[in-house]
Amino acid sequence: MRKSLLLLSALAWMGITGHAQAVANFSCDEATVAYYEQGWDSQEEAATWTYESTSSETWQLRATPTTYGAVPFTTVDSESQYSLTLKYGSNQHETATSPAIDIRPGSTLEFYCFANAGYLIYGAWKLYAIEGENQTLLIDQFLWAQDNAYDGQRWVKFEVDLAQYAGKSLQFSFVYEGDYGEDEALDGFRIVQVDDNATSITINEGEQVHFKDLSTGATNWAWTFAGGEPATSTEQNPVVTYNKAGTYDVTLTVDGITITREGYVIVKGQAPEAKIGMPDEAYLSPFRAAFVPVDVPVQFRDLSTGRPTSWAWEFTGTDPLTSTDQHPTVTYTTPGTYSLMLTASNDLGSDQDVMLYAVQAGGAQYIWNIAPEENSDLAAIEMGWYGNYGGTNWLGMPEFAEHFQAPLAPAQIDSVAVYFAKTTCVTTDADITVKIVAADEQGMPGEVLAESAIKASELKYDDQNVVETIWHFDQPVKVDGEFFVTIGGFPNNDGDDIAMLVHRRGEGEKCTSWQFVLDDDGTGYGYLETGQWYENVDDPMSFAISPILDYEVSGTTALPVTLRDADQLVNLNGDQIEFMGAEVVNVYDLNGRCVLTARTTTGLSGLPSGAYIVRAQAGDRVQTLKVIK
After folding, report:
1. Concatenated DSSP letters for 430-453?
2. pLDDT for the residue numbered 628
3. Is the domain defined by 372-550 classed in CATH 2.60.120?
4. DSSP structure class, residue 6
5. Which one, of 349, 278, 353, lies nearest residue 308 by Cα?
6. What is the rounded CA–CA span in Å between residue 259 and residue 279?
7. Helix (H/G/I), strand (E/B), else coil: 83
């Protein structure tokens, strides 16, 4: 009888299904506890580190970095007093090194840095982990900026996974080297460890929380997130975004068992992060963030995060020059290349986004459909045995097209640049033909406005640099509506392997690529000469096809320039760049940004002092000069 009672009790506890009763429990990836912190908020706290300097401009504690437009760390942490700052100087080699810290399992290093992107080429830090006599590079600030397309000056959070260092004793050392770079600042340095028993977590507005179910015996999950998006979920491990400051409860119910953690998510308000959005109606360019005509209104967009409540825009070359609208409309009145700045603010502080020489108004410029942040993701699209999308293929696609929106004012095109990922060919005499084609009433490629052909052997490729192949038209072609640039004639004999560079996007994102597909001949092995254009909606992307569009429309072509020296394309006369056979000249700063494009004699007087690279091109001939202004 006793054994029967024990069995009945066990069955009652397990339930009629024979399974143990569920126990609800949860945590999240953001649940951590800090076991080392350095905020540089007092001389005593800062003195726990060691500092070395080779310059009179050494490490200091300041409430705000000294660089123009800097904001204090209170915009991130309202309790901050000071930050560790370094003022730029000449021939600097400065170090700031932590004491030895015992690294626990599941640890992450966190810290913030304020820096001006435009000057990192002149001076930047590297962060090392030091274990005895050995040191390991964790972050190279300059390379990080290049890899992440960092173009602002703001407080940026860095995180380093320290899992491989668990059980070791490490020092961390910032080593700054530079020659007249720009001021930098560090703050919020801490090492945290995963803590599933944390009673609350703290995040900033707009950040995500990655919840993780720690329940036992659960077969279904019902979450409720006060203040979160989404507000509910039935996923086992949901990801939730919190966009508004406050303290919020989280509830999880599993198999009828409920647990609520009151005040589990603490969301801190923060100063905004300013971000300028270029006009939708402007053209993108490999060398500019936006290309617009003069005397045509264009609207800039505020893309700032952090819930700004006021905006202060400053423009150059426009009417008006300033605006407090969130999305201002301005008109560029004079041809040139211009900078702009946005200051976004709320009750917790402000932030600035500065874009130097970002907008070209009027004149001529390369255009394409690839945003600056997408430039680093160009590649060929290979389809295995079937060849390449946008090049040699055996799928009955002899021609491809890139769609362009209508110009904001009458314009003309005299040439097209195309960038290739592969140019291997055995059929060297194949004609690769580029056309400017007007969009028809259905928005498809229609009337051919101009065309030009070069041999497959003339296509340009360099495995070290992205280089252009240019097709020139006999006469500039005028465009005033939507148009396409088509390219075709890629040979597909054994050994031919040609592919354009492409930026590939996700489902539902912008697509500007088209392909002409031949009709099947019914045998399953061949194609007819007829076919149809199709937009590539199934795999959104843009080709690296770049017509050179000129808003200065004229009735005649440019007069030819007589070469005084067969090898010289440009001549420098003071700050004037004189054309001596060059078709186009691009001027780059030392960050690799194109700050000026010219197709006729021009001056450098509008550029700030510094070093520049002048690159002149005529056909396949290139001349480069270094200029100190």
Report:
1. -EEEEEEEEE-TTSSEEEEEEEEE
2. 64
3. yes
4. H
5. 349
6. 49
7. strand
Provide the sign of the torsion angle of the four alpha carbons 533, 534, 536, 542, taken in this order: positive
| pTM of the predicted model over 0.70 | no
Q: How deeply is 281 buried, as exposed, middle or buried, from its count of CB atoms within 10 A (0-12, 13-18, 19+)? A: middle
The CATH code belonging to domain 293-362 is 2.60.40.10
Q: Domain 32-194 class?
A: mainly beta
Contacts of 39 (CB under 8 A, 6+ apart): 45, 77, 80, 81, 187, 188, 189
Instruction: Express each pLDDT in 402-411 by its tens digit.
Output: 999 999 999 9
What confidence score (pLDDT) does residue 214 get? 96
43 φ/ψ angles, rounded to the nearest 5 degrees: -60, -35
Q: Is the bond leading into 398 cis (omega within 30 degrees of zero)?
A: no
Whether residue 292 contacts residue 282, with contact meaning beta carbons closer than 8 Å, is answered with yes
Token reading at 1: 């009888």
The distance from CA 262 to its chain's CA centroid, rounded to whole angstroms, is 38
CATH topology assigned to domain 199-268 = Immunoglobulin-like (2.60.40)
513-566 pLDDT per residue, tens? 999 999 988 887 788 989 999 999 889 999 999 999 999 764 433 323 222 333
C-alpha to C-alpha distance for 293 and 316, rounded to whole angstroms: 15
Taking residue 104's Cβ as centre, other Cβ atoms within 10 Å add up to 17
- Evaluate whether 180 touches 121 at the Cβ level (below 8 Å): no
Are 341 and 352 in contact by the 8 Å Cβ rule? The answer is yes
